[in-house]
Amino acid sequence: MATKQRLGLRQVRSLKPGGIIWDPSLRGFGARRQRSEAVSYVLFYRTKEGRQRWFTIGRHGAPWTPESARDEAQRLLGGVANNADPAAEKRTARNAQTVSELCDLYLTDAEAGRLVTRRRTTKKSSTLATDRGRIHRHIKPLLGRRAVASVTREDIEAFMHDVAAGKTAGKTKTKPRGLARVRGGKGTASRTVGLLGAIFTYAVRHRMRLDNPVHGVLRPADGRRERRLTDDEYKALGIALRKSETAKIWPAAIAVARFLALTGWRSGEALGLRWDEIDLARRTVTLGDTKTGRSVRPLPNAACDLLQGIGRTAELVFAATRGDGRMVGFPKFWARIAKLEGLPDDVTPHTLRHSYASLAGDLGYSEPTIAALIGHKGHSITSRYVHTADAVLLAAADAVANRTLTLMGERNAAAIIQLRRGRK
Q1: Could you give the C-alpha distances from 380 to 118, 282, 371, 383, 423, in angstroms and in order?
Q2: Do 353 and 388 share a domain, yes or no?
Q3: pTM metric for this prediction
Q4: Which of 59-73, 122-136, 168-182, 274-288 has the lowest mean pLDDT?
Q5: Residue 167 near residue 150 (C-beta atoms within 8 A)
Q6: Does 384 lie in the same domain as 332?
Q7: Can you tell me the distance from the alpha carbon of 401 to that of 396, in angstroms, rounded to the nearest whole number?
Q8: Which helix (H) or strand (E) element contains residue 352?
Q9: How many Cβ atoms sit within 10 Å of the Cβ of residue 171?
Q10: Range of the structural domain that residue 133 is part of
């Protein structure tokens, strides 16, 4: 039985089982008692689409009194007027997965190719491996138990500061004999929050929450530096490569390091290079699946000489120590090579790529030429060069490789194709 009275303590206490009292001072606000002794404050409203909704504010008793429940009902109705739906939001929060479960769903769809990047391509296996690492080492430990719908912008900001401060730093076992050193820092925090933005966008798309809490979070600069080798470091690298040939370091790893210095490739591209992708006669390589898609690269004479000296024994050019797969231990081999001449820890295989591009710039080559040399995707420059400017790219590749050899203290025996000025 429903009646209309302004709600007060006396009216609430007098409610009979099955009774409802509607407060005429605020439309839709009332108190209801079902079969038990408990009385609940409720709100009945219509959404802008005309759907009828029941919303239970809470049971009578601390913290809910007739006055506090009326204030809450008024606040909720203000949200309804702005197109909010408190009942739907509450239902979503009640059924929401944890952040840990959300991450698992995200990775499952990404690995199955059901998610695409901004370039409208699926994520590379290397990118997925990085995502898994950030999820397991940072996101799950700090946010994994939280309900998806309960995470706020303040939570994301606190997460970011915790990762930057090294709260998730430590060592993680990756395989029976492998350890991953997790350091944290501002760069890691910035990139992990970027991944969280993608994960919560996925949650919004699947109606697990109504908004993305990462939006509006100001991330610090990720700390990446365009580190390049100095002339002294190039010299040290050359000495280290020569020493490594007698230091019981895997020969294919030495060849990869030298190849990266001569070409400016990404290490993953070199490690996955197959013999059937190489055309030594034309001094080109056609990579079918790189970070930026299909890519055709010129080969300097020095790199061709290196490849010819390896000899074809398997499908991959740079063989692993065991089996026919990729050389997964290259980072450790690189560390041993760098240690031979005391190269700084921040000199990584990727530093060789930045150094190569910087040398090309020092030699006066234009940005489109450099982009084509190292496989940057931009306005289809690479594909245009393949058809109309092979000689230009080959000359540029030779010039940069030869300059690299000179800086490393090695005799420059590779031929350079002479070009007229203005053809870069």
Answers
A1: 17, 21, 10, 5, 19
A2: yes
A3: 0.59
A4: 168-182
A5: no
A6: yes
A7: 9
A8: helix 349-362
A9: 9
A10: 99-205
